[in-house]
Design goal:
Chain lengths: ~190, ~950
């Protein structure tokens, strides 16, 4: 079972955290800090698995992580999960994000927390892997997005007289997206 | 609002408190359109946990959305259900989630399956009736749904592999299909068909095949196939390979496969990719348990790995070494481990069981303690001390070990001890205190001096000081002068514990007689404690019975109390409705939580009625009598009818019985109170002595689990009198009437009654009316249908169950189908021939005939209740009546009354414990609410009801 999914950047700032077991606020923050501490120390060329920190269940749990450009993706799992399987699940997650956001970057995770969470919810549900099929995930997410859009359109058409406009963020600076690309393209 | 909620989520993630937005998240989920709802649900699943009180507000929304026709809404509701719903809310949504299993959309089915899996993890007994649906999900046409059902099966099979052996074939077939590329191309990942599905299946197979040759044989072929297929060069294929290797080594071994697996491991270990190396080591660790030689092939790699820069690899290697430790290599391995200890606090202590000699052992332990020190787990020093204290068989060896320990510790202490970890110091002082006298060459004064020196060091914590001081107490005999100084110094210490010990030490050292007496008794006490601890606390029996006689309530174990408290607080999750047709108007109720007096009249809405019923269970219907119980026991007493002895005694409860007094529940009418208390007392002690109440428990569980009943229905042979022919043209029947008279449920003796009458009649062809042949005294009893057991051309045999109040009669009809006269029929019956479970149930239950009023009263007095929705037989005009009748026929229940859409039903155990059922039609389901004084009985009956309804032809 997956206990937690954490995404943080090179400086340890959390960008997404999802816990499938209950911890208190403070513990969650400590777990993130501890995990960052454990993961950031590791070199590029050593293996992607390590024993979980003390807070998140000790030696029974494993941290499986991947480092993409500016972001660390860490899955904390118990002994019943296959390490390499999870490693590739991270890959699937990142590729899906990449497809959904068209060239994903750290800022996407910041500005679209809800969307990222929704994608994650399609993949992992209550700690169990629900779907690993990328196209299926994207279809689901898009179907939901479409529905939202239609509703938003209806809303906007009502509001048009008031000259309501949606904030536009397309011109933002893409941080580290190139690095991510590079990693993604590696076979 | 939506935008704000997203920001709140972000704040929460960064660690800022955003609890003020929780309620808005719930509101958003309740009121918004799809867009808002989604954000609301997302926020809820991030903010709230299973124990959060605001979750209650969400139940209604979730129920609504589960019924929604909008796919997305239903999806969201299912997600949130799987994420945050706690145990006590599951019954509210369970039927809806169950329905979703047959939803046309696969995404919904898939989520429903996972939600049910989550329910299973939280509350296994609530979903036990839908196991058949899990099977359906496994056979679902959509691979996604099938995949998610594998989660459930993995869990189930981990728990009990034996129950699912029959599914091996299906799993193998699925895996074959996956390997053969039968799945849609969508499921491929890097050209591997559905890799995660394969992983899951392989794991299930390895669980199924463990130590089971026949099952293993089924899977050899497919394992071979996946080993062969998984030879592409990608991570995920390695994951599959690893899982395969593990499976091959777990199941019943087959040489050919083992060889292939070994080659795979070799590839792993030798791989330059670090992740694969790690997996290889892990596989090796797993495999060497079966075949230690395998490690030899990879010796060099292992040694390389030991010096690897990667911590994880290093640790895995040590784990591997730990597995192959034996008497020869222990020294080297432990050395390596100690090196590792300098950087981490992990070392498997078990390795040391292979210690070559004492000196090495003690030295190693010293190293371990001084480097690992306070980071070690608590049990390491404890185990070490126990080893020293209890020793092995030979006393000499033990003494030698202890002696060596004392020596080495003295040496350590003579050096600089200030940097040593506290735990090590404590350990040393204990050993010196116990065993310093063994070492004759060292002066005791020297030991005392060393310990005192230690005591003075500033780095020593006060806990360690206490250890040292008690060690000093043990060896201080005859060294009064030294000790007095010490005690004097410490008696002004700020630490009260230290001060007290110093005081004791001084007293003891001044009075040598006292010292000896104390030491002697201490030893004796330890002996007594270690040899026999009276866990049943029987020496308190007298006290308890006194308290009981004085009016205290029997003790309830904490979990039961907890449960009752929970029940008191439990909320009614079902829509409000009129509850039982019970007159409550005259019943005055006290709420346990508040001392205020409530008075509730009948016709209230369901919620408050429930409350009143709960409270009623604790006070019960003393007409005109008011009692108030608060959290602190008696708050006020206005009882007029109760015997006077009750009042003072309950008020003056001894402190030990305080709790019991709080729980005091006068369940009985005043007139019979004393007598019943005696009974209670006796039942209480029976419980203490692990008596009959426990047997009843296990017995009920037994029936739940469909095990063979403890009742031994022994095979018996019987020779009936042969019948005499009345006329040549007539068929002759030999009718045997056997009474399986179980005098007591658990007794299980069968009394066989010889046929009392021999009647010759003309049975109608087909002989469906055999019951007409019953003897007169049995004719009026309710009976089941006559079922044919077996027949051959000459004889046919059928049986019928008669339900008597105190017993189940099994009547067996043996009829002669030929025209010849049969003499001497020998009948042998073994219990396999009985429908064990069914008859067992009938043995234990009887209809309980009560009136509606009595039912109402009884209902209030019962404490354990269970609610669940059952299937309703829908195709009849009056579904409730049909369902209840079906239940009545199947389970020997008594239908007390049916009013509108509600029905009340009662039954009881042979031993007397009643169980009341309240059924209400709730849409297409039957909302069943059971109550009984026995905690397990409702579950048992519920289970049988489910079975009965499932078996009833629609």
């Amino acid at each position: 079972m997956i206990k937690a999914i954490l995404i943080f950047n090179n400086h340890g700032k959390p960008r997404l955290s999802k816990f499938y077991e209950h911890y208190t606020e403070d513990t969650e923050q400590q777990i993130i800090r501890e995990t960052f501490h454990l993961v950031s120390k590791r070199d590029e060329n050593i293996c992607n698995f390590l024993e979980g920190g003390l807070l998140i269940g000790g030696s029974d749990n494993k941290l499986i992580y991947r480092h993409y450009a500016t972001l660390y993706f860490v899955f904390c799992v118990d002994s019943s999960e296959s390490e390499l399987g999870i490693l590739d699940l991270i890959q699937v997650l990142v590729e899906t994000l990449d497809k959904c956001f068209e060239n994903v970057c750290e800022l996407d995770l910041i500005f679209h927390v809800d969307k990222v969470h929704n994608i994650l919810a399609e993949m992992v549900m209550g700690g169990m892997v629900l779907e690993t099929n990328m196209s299926e995930i994207i279809t689901q997410v898009e179907a939901q997005g479409k529905m939202e859009k239609s509703e938003l359109c209806a809303f906007l058409s009502l509001c048009r007289p008031l000259s309501f406009s949606v904030p536009d963020r397309t011109g933002r600076h893409r941080l580290g997206s190139q690095g991510l690309r590079r990693v993604l393209c590696r076979p | 609002m939506r935008e704000i909620m997203v920001r709140a989520m972000y704040c929460e993630m960064l660690g800022y408190d955003a609890s003020f937005t929780y309620i808005h998240a719930i509101k958003l989920a309740q009121q918004g359109g799809v867009l808002e709802k989604r954000v609301g649900y997302l926020a809820v699943s991030l903010f709230l946990n299973e124990g959060h009180e605001l979750l209650l507000l969400l139940v209604n929304t979730v129920l609504k959305d589960l019924q929604s026709t909008n796919l997305i809404e239903a999806c969201m509701a299912l997600t949130v259900v799987a994420q945050v719903f706690p145990k006590d809310m599951i019954p509210a949504v369970l039927p809806l989630v169950e329905d979703k299993l047959s939803h046309p959309k696969e995404i919904i089915r898939r989520k429903a399956v996972l939600a049910l899996y989550k329910f299973y993890l939280i509350a296994p007994n609530q979903v036990q009736h839908i196991h058949s649906k899990f099977r359906k999900a496994l056979c679902d046409q959509d691979p996604g749904v099938m995949t998610s059902s594998l989660h459930i099966y993995l869990q189930l099979i981990t728990e009990s592999p034996d129950g699912y052996k029959d599914l091996t074939g299906s799993f193998v077939t699925i895996l074959k299909q996956v390997l053969g590329g039968k799945l849609p191309v969508d499921f491929n990942y890097r050209n591997v068909p559905a890799p995660w599905l394969q992983l899951q299946l392989l794991r299930i197979l390895s669980l199924l095949g463990r130590e089971d040759q026949s099952t293993s044989e089924l899977m050899y072929e497919v394992l071979d196939e996946s080993l062969r297929r998984a030879e592409m060069n990608h991570n995920i294929t390695y994951a599959i390979l690893y899982e395969c290797v593990k499976a091959v080594y777990t199941i019943h071994p087959k040489a050919e496969l083992l060889e292939k697996a070994t080659r795979c491991i070799g590839n792993f270990v030798l791989s330059p990719k670090i992740n694969l190396k790690y997996l290889g080591l892990k596989a090796l660790t797993y495999v060497v348990q079966h075949d230690a030689k395998l490690a030899l092939q990879h010796q060099m790699t292992i040694i390389e790995c030991l010096d690897h820069t990667d911590f994880t690899i290093k640790r895995e290697t040590l784990e591997l070494l730990f597995r192959i430790t034996n008497a020869q290599n222990v020294t080297v391995i432990v050395e390596k481990m100690l090196d590792f200890l300098h950087v981490s606090c992990y070392v498997p202590m078990k390795t040391l069981t292979f210690a070559p000699d004492n000196s090495w052992f003690i030295q190693t332990m010293n190293d371990v303690f001084s480097t690992g020190g306070d980071l070690l787990q608590q049990d390491v020093p404890n185990n070490f001390l126990r080893l020293l204290a209890e020793g092995s068989e030979s006393k000499e060896e033990d003494d030698q070990l202890r002696l060596y320990a004392v020596d080495s510790y003295l040496t350590v202490l003579k050096g600089d001890a200030s940097h040593l970890p506290q735990r090590f110091l404590q350990l040393m002082s204990w050993v010196l205190g116990e065993y310093a006298h063994l070492q004759e060459s060292v002066d005791q004064r020297e030991v005392i001096r060393l310990l005192t020196q230690l005591l003075d060091q500033r780095s020593v914590s006060s806990e360690t000081r206490v250890w040292i001081l008690s060690a000093l107490t043990k060896i201080s005999e005859g060294q009064t002068d030294l000790i007095l100084d010490l005690a004097e110094g410490l008696s002004s210490s700020q630490d009260t514990v230290l001060r007290q010990q110093a005081q004791e030490l001084r007293q003891l050292s001044q009075d040598s007689q006292l010292y000896e007496w104390v030491l002697f008794h201490l030893v004796a006490l330890v002996c007594v404690f270690s040899s026999q601890v009276d866990s049943s606390l029987s020496f308190l029996d007298g006290f308890v019975s006194e308290a009981l006689a004085a009016g205290a309530a029997p003790y309830k174990p904490p979990h039961q109390r907890q449960q009752e408290l929970c029940e008191d607080r439990a909320l009614n999750l079902e829509p409000y409705s009129f509850s039982l047709p019970v007159s409550l108007s005259s019943c005055s109720i006290t709420d346990r939580q508040s001392p205020t007096l409530l008075s509730i009249s009948s016709g209230l809405s369901g919620n408050s009625t429930e409350l009143s019923q709960k409270a009623g269970s604790s006070t019960l219907i003393l007409e005109g009598v008011k009692r108030v119980w608060g959290k602190d026991g008696y708050l006020q007493q206005k009882e007029t009818t109760a015997p006077p002895v009750d009042e003072p005694s309950a008020a003056v409860q001894p402190s030990g019985q305080q709790e019991a007094a709080e729980r005091l529940e006068p369940q009985l009418e005043p007139s019979t109170q004393n007598q019943d208390k005696q009974q209670l007392a006796s039942s209480l002690f029976v419980g203490l002595g692990a008596g009959s109440s426990i047997t009843t428990d296990s017995f009920l569980y037994g029936s739940l689990l469909e095990e063979e009943p403890a009742t031994s229905i022994s095979a018996f042979g019987h020779t009936p009198k042969s019948s005499t022919a009345n006329g040549p043209a007539q068929n002759k029947d030999t009718k045997e009437d056997r009474r399986a008279n179980t005098s007591h449920i658990l007794g299980g003796d069968m009394v066989i009654v010889r046929p009392n009458t021999i009647q010759d009649k003309h049975p109608p062809p087909g002989s469906s009316d055999l019951t007409a042949l019953l003897p007169a005294d049995l004719k009026d009893l309710p009976h089941s249908d006559v079922s044919s057991l077996t027949s051959d051309p000459s004889l046919s045999m059928s049986s019928c169950r008669l339900f008597r109040d105190e017993a189940l009669l099994l009547v067996i009809f043996i009829s002669n189908c030929t025209e010849t006269v049969i003499k001497d029929v020998a009948v042998q019956l073994t219990c396999e021939e009985l429908e064990v479970c069914y008859s067992f149930f009938s043995v234990t239950h009887r209809p309980l005939v009560v009136t509606t009023e009595e039912y109402g009263k009884l209902w209030l007095s019962l404490s354990h209740d269970v609610k669940q929705n059952l299937k309703l037989l829908t195709d009849a005009r009056d579904p409730l009546r049909t369902t209840l009748n079906a239940l009545k026929d199947a389970l020997q229940l008594h239908v007390v009354d049916i009013i509108g859409s509600e029905g009340i039903v009662a039954c009881r155990l042979l031993s007397g414990a009643p169980c009341l059922l309240h059924c209400r039609v709730n849409g297409a389901a039957l909302a069943m609410w059971l109550r009984s004084p026995h905690p397990v009985l409702p579950y048992c009956i519920l289970y049988h009801c489910q079975r009965a309804l499932a078996q009833t032809p629609r």
